[in-house]
Specification:
The structure holds three protein chains of three kinds.
Chain A: E1 2-11, E2 14-24, E3 29-33, H1 40-47, E4 55-60, E5 63-64, H2 72-78, E6 79-82, H3 94-104, H4 110-123, H5 139-151, E7 157-161, H6 169-184, E8 188-192, H7 196-202, E9 205-210, E10 213-218, H8 220-225, H9 230-239
Chain B: H1 4-42, H2 47-62, H3 65-80, H4 86-111, H5 115-123, H6 128-158, H7 170-181, H8 184-215
Chain C: H1 2-36, E1 45-51, E2 54-55, E3 59-61, E4 67-68, H2 70-82, E5 84-90, H3 96-101, E6 107-108, H4 116-119, E7 122-124, E8 129-131, E9 133-138, E10 154-157, H5 161-169, E11 181-184, H6 187-196, E12 201-205, H7 206-215, E13 221-224, E14 232-234, E15 237-239, H8 243-258, H9 261-269
Parallel strand pairs in C: 1-5, 1-6, 10-11, 10-12
Antiparallel strand pairs in C: 2-3, 3-4, 6-15, 7-15, 8-14, 9-12, 9-13
Chain lengths: 240, 219, 272
């Protein structure tokens, strides 16, 4: 589904990604962990081109992202993204947030979009919040609307950029529950997260990054249970 | 005090005030359109369009409005060779000037919107234009209302400068009446009160709009 | 960045304080000299004069920003005769008579025609010059006489006798917003508009139209004279009721006319 080869990314003189190669298979759930500043968020943002790679290749659903003919917006329609800070549109209701892109980008008929949106709201457990504005929702509810918003575009891949780290602890569970459901349904997911419980339970693979490189990867049992690399051990000892 | 001279001239003063309102509404209206597009050019990723927008803004904010009015009415026609019309010249000068100020108002408003809004829109497959139109600008607009109100009030007063190209708005009406009555106090206090009524009405309207926007009726 | 901002703010503050103090200092010094010498015999008394210095050849600014012209030299001669020194200040036309009311000026000399209307609110000296109006037009204009002005757009200087003539010609009140009369701040502005074709004709004091045509030979302007324009008399304006000053001024005018100064000024500014 996603192929990344020799990905480099610099911000000015600061080199954030130093030759990252990896791939994500269809229906696979990959959890990326690592200390802050390790480049894991940048990696995620390169996958849907919120950041331009300095060099290297990225292929999403068989479309090369660096290829000039690539319709960037088309790729983005296939890749949903969930942000740490939700980034809901504050001037739209929960329903408005979910229906905007399908109507404006996909030009789907309004009735159809609304029906699908209500189903999605139901799926994330917020059927009663359809007409509520984001500032009246809790953090956990906002993040669930944000997930529904991304799903409304019927993406083949979902990217999660630390989806629970801006949440109060009591709200983390409700968001993770939605994500677990999604994984169970067979969604291809790349999740940057420190939720080790989630990684163990639904992760097919865990990637540990540090200083712009992939240090270690394997099944959750391998990485958490018997980390090979010194830096992985050091990191895990700090957060577990 | 001889207030009877004012009472006789209320209709002509109101006629002048009406022209002041027309000039201001047109200038700020056209200026808003100019300002919107200029601000988009100003923040675009293309160097040339940024440069052109910045040049326009710098020139019209950095030179006196009076000089711009003279330039458009007296200067350009002699250079290019057309017959100037005071109304068109006046509205053009005020609009172009206002556009430069409003461009900066829009730019500040757009840039005050969290970067994550654009990223979220783009990640949903929206184009830059769609994101601007459906996500960024509707939010920016709320923040633009108060400074736009200030611009409106400033323009209401600055519009008196077009009297130098014979547009008989409120101020020139007042001056002409003083010329034949020699009662500057009565005339100018009336003119001042008329301006005050207009500016206060605008600030009330803006305050009302702001309240509605804040309570979320116009989400 | 913040540091620079603070620094420049402080600099701005210091600069404005310095300027303010310089302004005050000047005034204080002046006050001091007055205080130490209660009535110095050598010191001249000042006659504060308002004039609209955009009206060649009567009053205009030379390249050094001094106000010169017939009226300017004449009032200086008159003031000298009175034992005063004339201090001329430029004031916009519409602000001249108000400057008398407010006390900013003792006297106005600004090519101002004595009219019955103006006499109601201001005290005029004896007339010191007579002139007529003239119509400035573009070369080749179909306007040959005053009758040809019907339907034409006339440019005037706001609140001048030319403006009042045009209002009467079109049978409207001066303050009416009437399409065919364009009111400019200055007569040169009106003549500039004539150049561009924004107005068809300009009615103004003949010497001013003449001076403009002479000074701008490339502007392709000319004038139409008519004996239907009434003779107008210029007077100096003072605050209503200030008979004492008016008497001194009138005596001085008489002397300046008698001692030959007046004739030499007329010759200098109106050679025709």
């Amino acid at each position: 589904m996603i192929y990344i080869k020799d990905l480099y990314k610099s911000f000015g003189t600061l080199e954030v990604l130093k030759g990252v190669s990896c791939h994500v298979k269809e229906k696979e759930v990959v959890v990326v962990i690592g200390p802050s500043g390790s480049g894991k968020s940048t990696l995620l943002r390169c996958i849907n081109k919120l950041e331009d790679a300095t060099s290297g290749e990225i292929t999403v659903d068989n479309i090369p992202l660096n290829g000039s003919a690539t319709n960037l917006n088309k790729v983005r329609e296939e890749v949903g993204m969930v942000f740490q800070r939700f980034n809901l549109f504050p001037h739209k209701t929960a329903l408005g947030n979910i229906t905007m892109a399908p109507m404006k980008v996909r030009k789907t008929a309004k009735a159809e979009v609304y029906e699908a949106a209500l189903k999605l709201l139901n799926k994330v457990g917020l059927s009663d919040k359809a007409d509520v504005y984001p500032d009246q929702l809790s953090g956990g509810q906002q993040q669930r609307v944000a997930i529904a918003r991304a799903l409304a575009m019927q993406p083949k891949i979902m990217l999660f950029d630390e989806p629970t780290s801006a949440l109060d602890p009591e709200m983390v569970g409700e968001v993770l529950a939605v994500m677990k459901n999604l994984a169970r349904e067979g969604m291809t997911m790349v999740v940057v997260s420190h939720e080790m419980g989630f990684a163990r339970e639904v992760g097919d693979r865990v990637i540990f990054m540090d200083e712009g490189m992939i240090i270690e990867e394997g099944t959750p049992e391998q990485v958490f249970g018997s980390p090979q690399h010194q830096r992985t051990k050091a990191f895990l000892s700090k957060i577990l | 005090m001889r207030w009877e001279i004012i009472i006789d001239r209320i209709p002509i003063l109101l006629q002048g005030a009406l022209m002041t309102v027309e000039l201001t509404v047109l200038a700020v209206g056209i200026g808003t359109v100019i300002g919107l597009f200029t601000s988009l050019f100003r923040i675009s990723k293309f160097g040339l369009s940024r440069f052109l927008a910045a040049t326009y803004i710098d020139f019209f904010r950095g030179t006196p409005l009076l000089a711009q009015i003279y330039l458009i009415y007296f200067g350009l026609p002699q250079l290019v060779g057309y017959v100037p019309n005071p109304w068109i010249s006046g509205v053009a000068a005020l609009s172009i000037n206002s556009g430069a100020y409003i461009a900066e108002i829009f730019r500040a408003g757009i840039q005050s919107i969290d970067k994550g809004q654009m990223e979220a829109s783009r990640s949903l497959g929206m184009s830059y234009g769609q994101a601007m139109r459906y996500v960024i600008l509707p939010q920016a607009f709320k923040r633009i209302v108060p400074p736009l109100g200030n611009e409106f009030i400033a323009m209401l007063k600055d519009s008196s400068l077009v009297s130098v190209i014979t547009l008989q708005e409120l101020m020139l009406t007042g001056r002409t009446i003083v010329g034949s009555t020699y009662r500057p106090f009565e005339v100018y206090i009336t003119v001042a009160v008329l301006y005050l009524v207009m500016t206060l009405s605008i600030s009330r309207l803006i305050a009302f709009l702001e309240r509605r926007l804040r309570t979320g009726d116009l989400h | 960045m913040k540091k620079y901002l603070k620094l420049s703010l402080v600099a701005l503050l210091v600069l404005s304080l310095a300027l303010a103090l310089a302004g005050c200092g000047g005034k204080q010094e002046a006050a001091k000299t007055e205080g130490t010498n209660p009535s110095p015999p050598a010191e001249k008394k000042i006659l504060k004069v308002s004039t609209e210095a955009a009206y060649a050849p009567f009053e205009f600014k030379d390249k050094d920003n001094n106000i010169v012209g017939f009226d300017a030299e004449f009032i200086r001669a008159v003031a000298k005769e009175m034992g005063y020194e004339a201090e001329l200040t430029h004031v916009a036309w519409d602000g001249l008579i108000p400057s008398l009311e407010s006390g900013a000026a003792d006297i106005v000399i600004s090519a101002m025609t004595i009219t019955e209307e103006r006499k109601k609110s201001t005290l005029f000296s004896e007339p010191y010059l007579n002139i007529v109006q003239s119509v400035g037009i573009k070369e080749g204009s179909p306007i040959k006489s005053l009758d040809d002005l019907k339907g034409k757009t006339i440019g005037v200087q706001n609140n001048t006798t030319g403006h009042y003539w045009a209002a009467k010609f079109y049978n409207v009140k001066p303050e009416d917003n009437f399409d065919k009369i364009k009111k400019f701040d200055t007569t040169p502005d009106a003549l500039e508009a004539l150049k561009t074709g924004a107005v068809d004709a300009v009615v103004a004091d003949k010497p001013v139209v003449l001076a403009y045509i002479k000074e701008n030979p490339n502007s392709k302007l000319t004038k139409v004279d008519s004996d239907k324009f009434e003779k107008e008399y210029y007077g100096m304006a003072m605050k209503l009721g200030n008979e004492e000053l008016a008497k001194k001024v009138n005596d001085a005018i008489k002397k300046v006319k008698e001692n030959g100064t007046y004739d030499s000024l007329v010759k200098k500014y109106f050679p025709e």
